[in-house]
């Protein structure tokens, strides 16, 4: 590095220090108000004094309330302040910050950044501060790596390719590889989406720009959109880099068309600006946009189109193994008493997110400190858990043992029905980790994209859906509401079986409209029908489901040992993947063989 470059680097770091300091300061001020409110007060002569630190303004109104706000453009504010004869104080070189220096800052930074980090010198150093665009978070030095993100091996695998494309864009494009542009991380709060985005930046040693979706919308009309443009301009200059947009649903929610309030206008403009920016990339500009949301269902479909956030990675709450790994990552930061068993602790906190686990470790350390202990032991974890669970109970996250058992058998019922029937999709994953309103989930993944379905396939689908309720009946001899979704889906398939696919023998291949229950799938060309036909249709649907239910019952009853085996595995591990399921299946088949042998021997002897 030449002397000039070193000099620039020092200059750069000083600037960033000041910028960082300002942001820190801002976080400790009492109240935040919008810039428009500030300007309003100013125009009504209700501002007494103003203190400037770069773009951050601390103002005191005539009622001596002090509040803070952010000025998108300080330079244009100065004449107004002068006009109103406001007492302006400023920190360090604030006069010039507010004027020409502020305007020149990005130029300095970009120039410095260019000289120091110009492409051919790219190395691991490239991960610290380059410029800061107006208003968005300056890039932090990212020292997060994949090792800091535990228990999400699936997502990690998928995202290591992204790291590759960032560190080695040439290789990627030479091979004709498609560099992903937008990645949507979806999952409940606290599951490590932000952490993961940072880890990608850290692993690839590229700059990381972070902004919250709601940061765009708090502003008045037009500012959100221009912030998006600023952000992308800045990011492109620093490519390859990562832009992280947290809570993208704040701007990317479905456009309703109705309710034309100002904030909606603003949101739409911002969203449009984002779409335009994402579409307007050259292939050599490797800017990867990672967005996070816990409401993927709320997103505007335009965001999910090819070339935009077309890669979606789901991050679920961790299972018991994942929780243990996350515990281990965070326990590195504390002194652990010997013999503290992380598996036991992990087992005791079903439903905890990564953030809650981090909090647990922290609380446990505090508990130990309060008791003047030299190390944190399992008792401290127990106490911390009780303290945190009290808060969680209200969120309905902690499930009681009885519900867990019922859920385990319910999911086992689905999975085993799928396994034992021919012509079904393979079971990919079974879990009793609650997600949204569902207590558990059995995931099947089709081997190939299906466009047509055979009669058997549809009947087996209904049986698989029945399997949950059937298992509950066989084992506990009672019914729960846990199966209500299954029943809705099964009824839907059965009525299409009869009315749309014409597969019922009694009705024949005639399409009947199902408009009464508001189904969208019905075609206008379908036949209107008489009261009598309606009765027939109802009867056919009922027969079909009844038949499926009975056959599933018989099948699961005969194989109830398989049910017990899988439910036990679920209760211990919470998640059973396709491979593990196959192992449980083989164990069951083995046991069955041994039993048969014994029976045969008894007959002979
Ligand atoms: P999200 O963005 O999904 O809401 P965050 O990434 O902000 O979640 O997670 C908050 C904190 O919780 C992280 O900084 C980290 O300390 C902890 N955490 C969450 N998930 C994990 C994980 N998988 N591994 C390790 N720590 C985690
Ligand atoms: Zn179910």
Provide a brief overview of the structure:
The protein is α/β, with parallel strands linked by helices.
Output the structural class. alpha/beta
Helix count? 22
Taken together, the total number of domains comes to 4
CATH topology of the largest domain: Methane Monooxygenase Hydroxylase, Chain G, domain 1
The share of residues in extended strands comes to 5-15%
Give the name of the CATH architecture of the largest domain.
Up-down Bundle
Query: What distance lies between the first and last C-alpha atoms, to the nearest angstrom?
Result: 90 Å
Query: What's the alpha carbon Rg, rounded to whole Å?
Result: 30 Å
Instruction: State mean pLDDT (0 to 100 scale).
Output: 77
Bound molecules: adenosine-5'-diphosphate, zinc ion
Based on DSSP secondary structure assignment, what is the total number of beta strands?
12
Give the quaternary arrangement of the chains: single chain
| Uncertain stretches of 5 or more adjacent residues | 17-29, 93-135, 258-262, 516-524
Largest sheet: 5 strands, parallel
> What percent of the residues sit in helical stretches (DSSP H or I)?
40-55%
What is the highest CATH level, the class of the largest domain?
A: Mainly Alpha
